Amino acid sequence: MHSEVNPWSNNQTVDVDRLFAEFGIEPVSEVARRLPEVPSFMRRGIVVGHRDYNLVADAIRNRTPFHVLTGFMPSGLPHLGHLMVMKEVVWHVRQGGNGYVAVADREAHAVRGISWEKCREYGKEYLKALYALGFEGTTYYQSKNERLKDLAFEASTKVNFSELAAIYGFGPDTSLSHAMSVITQVADILFPQLDAGPAPTIVPVGLDQDPHIRLTRDVAYKLRLFTVEDRGDHISVRSKNAPEAAIEAVHRAFPGSKKYAGHVDVTGLPHGRVEDAVREVEIAHGGFGFYLPSSTYHIFMPGLQGGKMSSSVAESSFGFYESDRSIKKKVMAAKTGGRMTLEEQRRLGGEPDACSVYLLNLFHMLEDDVELADLRRRCESGELTCGQCKKETLERVNAFLSELRDKMDAVEHLAEEV
Ligand code: SF4
After folding, report:
1. Using CA atoms, how far apart are residues 160 and 143, in angstroms rounded to an integer?
2. 172 lies in the same domain as 230
3. Within a domain: residue 317?
4. Which GO terms of type biological process are on file (predicted)?
5. 77: domain range?
6. Gap from CA of 198 to ligand 1 centroid (Å)
7. Integer Cα distance of 39 and 21 in angstroms
8. How far apart are CA 365 and CA 92, in angstroms?
9. What are phi and psi of 130, to 5 degrees?
10. Measured by CB atoms within 10 angstroms of the end CB, which terminus of the chain is less buried, N or C?
11. Is 331 in the pocket of ligand 1 (CB under 6 A)?
């Protein structure tokens, strides 16, 4: 049976508790406390889980190198639903991360049949939005990145069809290009470490993308020449197909270490120091020295109409360049947590957690926690009517989009240069 959560399934309903229990995703609250500044998407419970984010949190705190990466599939124009990942990437870049953004044109072409020309046209809009939001770093189209393709080929030596069948439900009729696009995405996630050197890498994703993360971590592990295991009284550096010269180099790197067939035992040094030195040896002997990529998981903003937010449901979201008239119509028609009558609303108050207008503010339109808390209080006390609330929200949406569009226009040249 294939995984119930995969990025291409139509059913994006994700059972958070099950994912946490079954796949070892950890709640983000504990690790967020290690950050010098907790971003609103963590404070507000939008990002709920992580894998190995402690590596990234420590890099932020200690100002040591780390990478942040995401990819966008250019199968249509960017919209509200893409904003969260963009903000997460930009936030990490501002915390000192080396930013990478892949335009997944190979995936759009293979999986959705989008022409290369359209991929380029849509891809440019994603990049404009990212730059407008403050992104700095490296951006590329998968189809134009030759080193990425070589890395994808190397990664493909570590994945077989039964794994793809188990993760994505691939069957005998699945086009080979689907498999190639999966492995290209694996390479996307590892690419920053190839390009700028091994370092912790954060990949902010929605919970439905976890299969990609698990597969990539598995490939990163398999591409390593050594494992470094803490055995209590010593650290064991074990070879996984490392050439004899590399094992010998590890032995020489640690005076007093003992060399056996296929492994070297090191004593008296902290695990991190041994890891770093082994990584250097590995790279000097043709290995990659990859860190397993870290990930954070965010929940999805529901659609404005109350269902799922999706590019294929026009009223669920709005594009960044959509007309004011259309946006007004969508916001004013959004599903609220209001009561049947005004009298009831005044008496009982609204239900913000069941309201897409409130969630639009929580996700994107109200940056200030005090203002958001005030909106919640006014809603729950019955002081605010839904009509008034929508009007206020629409003003925020218009102000946000007008600023974003101006900035997108101003950075068009950056997106064109990619
Ligand atoms: Fe939603 Fe605002 Fe109505 Fe409260 S007052 S239910 S937040 S639209």
Report:
1. 23
2. no
3. no
4. tryptophanyl-tRNA aminoacylation
5. 12-223+292-298
6. 47
7. 25
8. 20
9. -65, -50
10. N
11. no
Q: 400 CA to middle of ligand 1, Å?
A: 20
Euclidean distance between CA atoms 171 and 206, whole angstroms: 25
Is 122 in the same domain as 209? yes
Cα torsion 129, 130, 136, 139: sign: negative
Are 204 and 94 contained in the same domain?
A: yes
Chain segment 275-333, per-residue pLDDT in tens: 999 999 999 999 999 999 999 999 888 899 988 888 888 889 999 999 999 999 999 99
Q: What is the DSSP secondary-structure string of 363-404?
A: III---HHHHHHHHHHHHHT-S-HHHHHHHHHHHHHHHHHHH
Classify residue 5: in a domain, yes or no.
no
ipTM reported for the complex, 2 dp: 0.99
The CATH code of the domain that includes 193 is 3.40.50.620
Are 103 and 219 found together in one domain? yes
* CATH code where residue 336 lies: 1.10.240.10
| Dist CA 5 CA 246 (whole Å) | 40
Query: Residues 361, 374: one domain?
Result: yes
- Regarding whether 239 and 215 lie in a shared domain, the answer is no
In this structure, the answer to whether residues 230 and 186 fall within a common structural domain is no
* 1 has a pLDDT exceeding 60: no
Structural domain contains residue 313: no
Q: Model's pTM, two decimal places?
A: 0.91
To test ligand 1's pocket by mutation, which of 358, 374, 388 has the most ligand atoms within 8 angstroms of CB?
Answer: 358
* Most informative mutation of 355, 374, 385 for ligand 1 (most atoms within 8 A of CB): 355
Q: What is the mean pLDDT of residues 116-139?
A: 95
The reply to whether 316 falls in a domain is no
- Alpha-carbon distance of 217 to 219, in angstroms, equals 5
User: Is 345 in the same domain as 409?
Assistant: yes
Distance, CA 35 to ligand 1 centroid (Å)?
Answer: 32
